[in-house]
Design a protein that fits this description.
alpha+beta, Butyryl-Coa Dehydrogenase, subunit A, domain 1, Butyryl-CoA Dehydrogenase, subunit A, domain 2, Butyryl-CoA Dehydrogenase, subunit A, domain 3, four-stranded mixed β-sheet, four-stranded antiparallel β-sheet, 12 helices, 17% strand, globular, AcylCoA_DH/ox_N, oxidoreductase, AcylCoA_DH/ox_N_sf, Acyl-CoA dehydrogenase family protein
Length: 387
């Protein structure tokens, strides 16, 4: 009897009942609400914003945070949820990551009590949407060289500059903006209806089409003193949020890879050539086996990192290892799965081509392959090669 990717991975026995319940709950949502429609959304470059409240009802936004409408679920549960969301589409998992890890995580970790009370509950419910503004046109992998600047003007701050590749910027209600100040990098909560705030969609895209990436411009945006995130000083503020987002990618990429594998296996068993299913040919079986091996290794790596995160022992180097490996292998799996589907593999009704395109963006954001390679290189040698 043919097996699904889950059966090949065989990690169910390593999961708790709560973890399994979370996985199945999110999977059922994705199967019912995302997969039947995602080809059209991708084709039309349409983000399913109508699903945001449902993600809130599923308690998937900021799910590892405690209080303020958040339930404080485990890192492994969050990882499993990220995997299922990305099995639907990278854009959906990206939204949960931006909202929950980058925006809500920054407010929860570095914000004042007033800021937490005002923003975290509606963000958790999906009633409000946030964006995280760090990357700039000339400062992608090198955020220390950001040019966006906030200057003091009496009790106020005046924000000027630009950001690029900011997820959800045109539909966000609040932006977490990182800017240089006379005292170093600080974070600010910027309502998107502020005078001088401008957001525009970056298009057309060949990847992450069922998502929204934007450019932001701040033309003398005046902010009250209460807009400052009081606990965040220097780059440790945005980097702490990025670590959480990168952890989610370790799991999420597996969802795209698993969905691609399952599509290839199903097709190989059904498609006949030379009077037999193509699954019966040695070359096809080798492709399926190679994909299954990497899926298994990636799942065990993600689970090990999740257990470490729940234990409070996970390191940035370990997160880099997970992101570098799992995204790289997920792209290879999606591409190989596409070959098994032959010509039909380029049709959007079949997911591998879409996952392969999306994963090129996942490979680039939250640290490129090169950045994570150098992080691990510094960890191994003690010598920083960034400069």
């Amino acid at each position: 009897m043919p097996q699904t990717a889950d059966e090949v991975l065989g990690i169910d026995d390593r999961l708790t009942p709560d973890e399994l319940l979370t996985r199945e709950r999110v999977r059922a949502f994705v199967d019912a609400e995302v997969k039947p429609h995602i080809a059209g959304w991708f084709d039309r470059a349409e983000f399913p914003v109508h699903l945001v409240p449902a993600l809130g009802e599923l308690q998937l936004l900021g799910m590892t945070l405690e209080g303020y409408g958040c339930l404080g679920r485990s890192a492994v549960e969050y990882g499993l949820a990220a995997m299922e969301l990305e099995a639907g589409d990278s854009g959906l998992r990206t939204f949960a990551s931006v909202q929950g890890s980058l925006v809500m995580g920054s407010i929860h970790r570095w914000g004042s009590e007033e800021q937490k009370q005002r923003w975290l509950p509606p963000l958790a419910r999906g009633e409000k949407i946030g964006c995280f503004a760090l990357t700039e046109p000339e400062a992608g992998s090198d955020p220390a060289n950001m040019r966006t600047f906030a200057r003091r003007d009496g009790d106020d701050w005046v924000l000027s500059g630009s950001k690029r590749w900011i997820g959800m910027g045109t539909i966000a209600d609040i932006a977490v903006v990182w800017a240089q100040t006379d005292a170093g990098v600080r974070g600010f909560l910027v309502p998107t209806d502020s005078v001088g705030f401008e957001a525009s969609v970056l298009e057309p895209k060949g990847s992450m089409r069922a998502s929204i990436q934007t450019a932001l411009r701040f033309d003398g945006v005046r902010l009250p003193s209460g807009a400052l995130l009081p606990g965040a000083e220097g780059l440790r503020g945005p980097f702490s949020a990025l670590s959480d987002a990168r952890y989610g990618i370790v799991w999420g990429a597996l969802g795209a890879a698993r969905d691609s594998f399952d599509a290839a296996l199903t097709h190989a068993l059904r498609r006949e050539q030379f009077d037999r299913p193509i699954a019966g040919f040695q070359l096809t079986q080798r492709k399926l086996v190679d994909m299954a091996v990497e899926l298994h290794k990636g799942a065990l790596l993600a689970l090990e990192l999740g257990r470490a995160k729940d234990a409070g022992t996970l390191t940035p180097a370990q997160i880099s290892l997970g992101k570098l490996n799992n995204v790289r292998e997920a792209i290879a799996i999606a591409r190989e799965a596409r070959t098994i589907l032959g010509g039909d593999g380029v049709l959007l009704d079949n997911p591998p081509i879409r996952h392969a395109a999306n994963l090129e963006s996942v490979r680039t954001y939250e640290g490129t392959d090169e950045v994570h390679t150098l992080i691990l290189g510094q960890h191994l040698t003690g010598i920083p090669a960034f400069r």
